[in-house]
Design goal:
Blueprint lengths: L21 H10 L14 E2 L11 H8 L9 H14 L3 E5 L2 H12 L5 E4 L4 H9 L3 E4 L20 H10 L7 E5 L12 H14 L2 E5 L3 H11 L8 H10 L3 E5 L10 E5 L2 H14 L10 H14 L2 H20 L12 E5 H4 L9 H13 L1 E2 L1 E3 L1 H4 L15 E5 L7 H16 L8 E5 L10 E4 L4
Parallel strand pairs: 1-10, 3-4, 5-6, 6-7
Antiparallel strand pairs: 2-8, 7-8, 9-12, 11-12, 13-14
Length: 461
Amino acid sequence: MDLPFSESYKIKMVENIHRSSRQEREVWIKEASYNLFNLKSSQVYIDLLTDSGTGAMSDKQWSEMMLGDESYAGASSYYKMKKAIQEITGFEYFLPTHQGRAAENVLFSALIKEGDIIPGNTHFDTTKGHIEFRRAHAIDCTIDEAFNTTLDYPFKGNIDIDKLEKVLKSHPKEKIPLIVVTVTCNSSGGQPVSMANMKAVREVADKCGIRVFFDSARFAENAYFIKLKEKGFTDKSIREIVREMFSYADGMTMSSKKDAIVNMGGFIGLRDKELFEKASTFNILFEGFISYGGMSGRDMNALAQGLYEGTDFNYLETRINQVAYLGQKLKDNGIPVQYPFGGHAIYVDAKRFLPHFPVEEYVAQTLAVELYLEGGIRGVEIGTLLADRDPDTGKNRFPELELVRLTIPRRVYTNNHMDYIAAALINVYERRSDIKRGFKIKKEAPILRHFTVELERVKQR
């Protein structure tokens, strides 16, 4: 018989988790103002809030932690990280930062000014937040296929070249400091961008003299999908594909808490020395000296090792197959999810799950709360709450997709946990017609409100 698929690692250490009662969870979520971010981790049985910094490091990464050089300037850990970044991405210059949004803060401080236009493929929350904080505008140029969750299209993260060219023609070049390509595209369901699309974006940008930057938190997962789905890449290694991907970019930001499998860390990769020197000033101002950038030496060592492990095919196959395992169980039981399955998470289509529900009552957040009440599972809303208010009108922005993201941490849970998650969501689906009340906002921050928002139940309709 054929040998079944199995994980590319074995478990060396475990952490106990508490399985609570529904009665306990009803009290806890109300005390948290129905914001899953406000829950204590001890109140969560299976935590799918994010894959950012929640992965399990390997024995080699832990070994590297013990070798960390904590010198303020010129630490050996800095050079170890620099070597890994150059080998894997090809960028000559880099700046360490403590995480991805810090990398965005430093880079955008050097590039973006008020009134600028930043086109891209569905900018994620912190990216859009940093753009709008500077009174600039993020414009979504994602292909239309991304917004049909039933459509089996291999590269739903792609930028629509016609949409991009329309934006570039409608605004002066001086108002467009960069194009952002997010790989994989988180807000459209962890969907990959094809190599052909990256190349096409590069060609359009070159005609207009505009920089291209990759938001690269999940670049290795994107490379895996290219290897599996795009013609001409089957026989190429993940690292060969990665080098070609980055050849179409002028630079990158990286939240290393994803594909480098560390609990904290990030960086900026650059080709241009002049931009590197300009960004260095902001790095020193916001993060720390350019040879540590808000990171300890031990974290830089773990990050460097994680970049090598995160671009290993066997690891990626294990990781993405587990996500697909959960997705297929949900799909087989009629749960509406973004299809094909993404790299780091399964995205439940809340509008199709609760078609009777008004989006004004935050349908995706309502579904996320119901899943927590059912099984102690913490997901996250990718919908109207995350979309924030329009900075010009102050009104809610209602995105085309209202999603609940079930984000799978790397090397943390087993497929038994995936079975539990599926069973809990199926139970919610079976009682979906009984879900009558959503939420209204009691208190919200002026930007990135979903992290701290306070909600209350609306009255029975």
